[in-house]
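in:
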């Protein structure tokens, strides 16, 4: 039988379409669709042994079945096994479900327990009706849980994977040379795949020590490093325009009301050298919050403009795009450089004019969100693309920018900025296709930021400090993570905080900004704060990347224990932009978990973003630092950058060995683990 999915029993066109959403195109892809976790359904637990937060398998008799209406329709069942009672709660249910879970029915259910005022409960557990005369046997091994897609349930997916294993496992190709497998003491690929899909033992802890898992981790990390190197080589083969004119750049430096730091000047020099080459710059500019990345990027832009070319600056939000536009206009207009802002709220006429100016080349610099790269935006001479807050965009978006040049004989240079310091290990693994520049010093004259950790019952003392700061003309950010009240998470909502502060601080002007406001209202609220018309701005984390207000000296962050270190650091970086001493209050809800306590202690101990990033990587892993939208390289199936960092030196050596001695396997390894999505094969 062939390897086509259609050759698997029960697999038809509709199911194939769902599998393709998981990047599964043949039976071999199914073998490498690896479980994200496992569930233990091998043992029944007595209800009286259960504790909150566990995922458990329990069995008992339904003693209560009732439908209630508490804001929404719910089915409430009580399950008893003689040792105790647990409540089963269903929000979305059919008449058949309600009837099937009738009193005296024996039910086996699997789900996560949680504590309520009336005792333990499960919400929407998996369940099956048990025939006492012919009970369903328990699972004999751990149950793998695979990446999900809509309309494809885990049970069916497990059957399909099992069928693919039965048909193809004996023909799977071992791509690592036998000498390397022996040298590293690795088990075979076949053994590893069988064990991963069907663990022979319950203990899957200490995963990086697991021989079978380690075998796959090494091959995946190798594939990613090979792919990165190929991408970098491919990029460097592309032609780019030489940009060498520096008159405008020097003019701006001379006219600035402040001196650039040594670190900024060094990075400008690195960028300048890149732009003078006839191959595209692919450089990531790292710098802590407030380190002055924007002015460095502006100087790079002027080199391109001075060379009669266009520049596009892409920001993740319209709010940040507005800020960049304002900064560039203040710097560029005196030099006669035209800057345009492409945003959603433009009138049809203004939009046409911007499009025309870009196409004709009369607009030298255009600022906007990802809309800058939609098909109807045509550039006449695009030679430099600047991407701010790279972690908010996917790798594919970064690569797609190279295709926007109207000159078929060249691709634009790219400068990728991030205010999220990324530890070296992570940067090497995720952004190995980019050269890296770091601004590692802050401009002189910045005020000190003092950080305090306060329980929520000390909010009155914080308000006293706020009143003092506002009395001498300073301004305050008050950040709340959610807009609406949530019983489950018990967040302090922005809306209710706004009302609370207006009542308590009636002499002060208080503004409100959050994600549900229209773009125009958000910009208006931020402008009022920037202009000093608002004393206190209540906001969600939408201001994490927002307008710089040098006069803001206080940052209050509600529910700080729920945020990651890097996000806390970003928020704190909204203050301390001026010369005044600033204060950051981290407000938490008791009780604090040990990790939350460690996180808050770490943020209080240092203002160094790179130290914080290393700590965040330890506590939360790479997802928080790189964002959830990362594709390709960071979308690892089984490896974990932090956990498996100890393997990277060996992986680097292995990469060189494979490239030098076994080039024929490179394409196969990359295709197996990374796929064709990022065009790695087209080198």
């Amino acid at each position: 039988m062939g390897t086509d999915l259609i050759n698997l029993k029960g697999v038809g066109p509709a199911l194939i379409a769902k599998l393709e959403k998981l990047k599964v195109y043949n039976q071999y892809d199914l073998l490498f669709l690896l479980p994200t976790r496992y569930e233990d359904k091998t043992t029944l637990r007595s209800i009286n042994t259960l504790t909150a937060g566990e995922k458990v398998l329990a069995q008992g008799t339904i003693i209560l079945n009732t439908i209630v209406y508490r804001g929404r329709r719910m089915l409430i069942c009580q399950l008893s096994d003689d040792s105790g009672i647990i409540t089963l709660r269903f929000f979305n249910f059919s008449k058949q479900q309600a009837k099937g879970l009738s009193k005296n029915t024996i039910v086996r259910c699997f789900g996560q327990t949680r504590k309520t005022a009336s005792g333990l409960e499960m919400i929407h557990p998996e369940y099956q009706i048990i025939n006492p005369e012919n009970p369903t046997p328990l699972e004999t091994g751990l149950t793998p849980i695979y990446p999900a897609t809509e309309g494809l349930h885990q049970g069916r997916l497990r059957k399909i994977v099992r069928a693919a294993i039965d048909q193809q496992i004996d023909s799977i190709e071992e791509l690592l040379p036998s000498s390397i497998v022996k040298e590293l003491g690795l088990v075979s690929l076949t053994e590893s795949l069988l064990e991963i899909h069907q663990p022979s033992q319950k203990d899957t802890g200490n995963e990086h020590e697991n021989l079978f898992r380690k075998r796959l981790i090494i091959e995946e990390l190798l594939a990613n490093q090979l792919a990165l190197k190929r991408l970098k080589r491919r990029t460097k083969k592309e032609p780019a325009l030489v940009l060498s004119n520096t008159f405008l750049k020097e003019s701006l430096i001379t006219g600035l009301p402040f001196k650039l730091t040594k670190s900024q000047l060094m990075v400008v020099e690195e960028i300048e050298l890149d732009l003078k080459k006839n191959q595209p710059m692919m450089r990531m500019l790292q710098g802590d919050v407030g380190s002055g990345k924007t002015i460095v990027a502006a100087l790079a832009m002027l080199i391109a403009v001075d060379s009669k070319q266009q520049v596009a600056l892409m920001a993740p939000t319209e709010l940040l795009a507005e800020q960049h536009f304002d900064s560039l206009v203040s710097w560029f207009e005196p030099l006669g450089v035209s800057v345009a802002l492409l945003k959603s709220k433009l009138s049809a006429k203004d939009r046409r004019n911007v499009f025309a100016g870009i196409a004709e080349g009369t607009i030298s610099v255009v600022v906007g969100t990802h809309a800058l790269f939609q098909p109807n935006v045509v550039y006449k001479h695009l030679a430099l693309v600047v991407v701010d807050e790279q972690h908010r965009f996917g790798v594919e978006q970064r690569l797609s920018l190279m295709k926007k040049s109207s000159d078929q004989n060249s691709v634009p240079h790219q400068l990728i900025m991030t205010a999220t310091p990324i530890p070296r290990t992570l940067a090497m693994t995720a952004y190995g296709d980019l050269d890296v520049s770091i601004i590692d010093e802050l401009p002189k004259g910045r005020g000190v930021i003092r950080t305090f950790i306060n329980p929520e019952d000390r909010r009155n003392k914080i308000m006293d400090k706020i009143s003092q700061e506002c009395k001498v003309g300073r301004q305050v950010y008050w950040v709340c993570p959610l807009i609406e009240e949530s019983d489950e998470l018990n967040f302090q909502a922005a809306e209710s905080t706004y009302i609370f502060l207006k009542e308590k601080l009636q002499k002060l002007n208080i503004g409100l900004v959050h994600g549900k406001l229209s773009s125009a209202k958000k910009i208006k609220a931020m402008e009022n704060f920037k202009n000093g018309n608002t004393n206190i701005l209540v906001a969600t984390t939408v201001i994490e990347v927002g307008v710089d207000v040098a006069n803001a000296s206080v940052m209050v962050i509600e529910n700080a224990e729920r945020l990651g270190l890097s996000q806390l650091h970003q928020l704190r970086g909204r203050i301390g932009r001026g010369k005044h001493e600033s204060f950051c209050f981290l407000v938490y809800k008791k009780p604090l978990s040990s990790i939350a306590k460690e996180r808050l202690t770490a943020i209080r101990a240092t203002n160094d973003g790179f130290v914080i990033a290393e700590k965040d990587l330890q506590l939360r892993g790479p997802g928080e630092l790189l964002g959830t939208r990362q594709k390709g390289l960071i979308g690892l199936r089984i490896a974990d950058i932090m956990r498996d960092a100890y393997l990277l030196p060996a992986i680097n050596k292995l990469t060189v060995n494979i490239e030098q001695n076994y080039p024929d396997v490179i394409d196969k390894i990359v295709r197996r683990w990374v796929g064709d999505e990022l065009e790695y094969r087209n080198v």
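note: The chain is about 35% helix and 20% strand.
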